[in-house]
Design brief:
By secondary structure, this protein is mainly α. It is built from nine helices and two strands; from the N terminus they run H-H-H-E-E-H-H-H-H-H-H. Helix 1 runs parallel beside helix 3, helix 6 runs antiparallel to helix 9 and helix 7 runs antiparallel to helix 8.
């Protein structure tokens, strides 16, 4: 018959609960694993499997009771680390969504919206289309494996109980959010520029020939040219996403290094 002491039970619970919350917080906040279409049971099951895998490889854990105020503080710390990494990865995908919003509005498809379960609100159909392609490209580039490896390696660079998250970390994340607008505009700029010039030409044409109204000629022409330009944009979409994902991974590494500073 096996006898277990309370100290052993505390050690086993600590080696599971704290890494489980960091990993699960990341899975919930990440854009792919945290998608609303994935059942909660699947996310929890994946979190449990990864925790069982990483538990024997953890560095020495702090001698802190799990059910205590200090243990609660460590629990919140793990949640913040996991959510921060997942949120940064979600901002990478928001770049493509922002570009789709810009393009859809300029093409005159601002009214063509559908409900997006991942963001919990309506989005322009062009934005949703580009987002789905980005998810597939993320899987094709094995980005999900790369980011999972980064998260699991954080238990070495950010050991449980050995992290003091500074306010500068949150400032770093806020500054990185500017990538959503800058990179999104950079992706959509060729289409926006071409469609803007065409709209200016249509405005001049409408003044010289009032019978050529915007609704009879301008809208079909803008939509057709926009779709053709999107086909051209797709030829360079994969290299853009590769650079975007690489930049996101590098920023996550920078964020982890900033968290590790004391």
């Amino acid at each position: 018959m096996f006898d277990f002491t309370s100290v052993q039970m505390q050690a086993w619970m600590a080696s599971f609960i704290w890494p489980f919350f960091r990993i699960t917080a990341f899975l919930v906040a990440a854009p792919l694993m945290g998608h609303a279409a994935i059942p909660v049971k699947v996310k929890l099951g994946l979190g449990v499997a990864l925790t069982i895998f990483i538990a024997p490889l953890l560095p020495p854990l702090p001698q802190v009771p799990v059910f205590s105020m200090a243990g609660l503080g460590l629990l919140v710390e793990q949640l913040l680390i996991g959510i921060a990494i997942g949120f940064c990865m979600r901002m990478v995908f928001s770049v493509v969504q922002a570009a789709g919003e810009y393009i859809g509005m300029q093409m005159g498809l601002g009214f063509a919206t559908s409900y997006s379960a991942d963001i919990g609100t309506n989005s322009v159909i062009i934005s949703k289309f580009l987002y789905q392609i980005t998810l597939l490209m993320f899987l094709a580039f094995s980005g999900h494996l790369v980011v999972l490896e980064i998260v699991l390696n954080t238990f070495t660079s950010l050991p449980i109980g050995g992290v003091e998250i500074q306010p500068s970390v949150w400032k770093l994340i806020a500054l990185y959010a500017g990538t959503i607008f800058s990179s999104g505009l950079l992706l959509s700029l060729p289409l926006l520029g071409a469609l803007l010039m065409m709209n200016l030409a249509m405005g001049i044409l409408n003044r010289s020939a009032p019978q050529l109204t915007v609704f009879s000629i301008g809208f079909p022409l803008t939509l057709t040219v926009g779709l053709i330009l999107m086909m051209v944009m797709m030829t360079s979409f994969a290299p853009f996403l590769e650079r975007l994902f690489s930049g996101g991974f590098q920023f996550i590494q920078t964020l982890i290094a900033a968290m590790a500073e004391k």
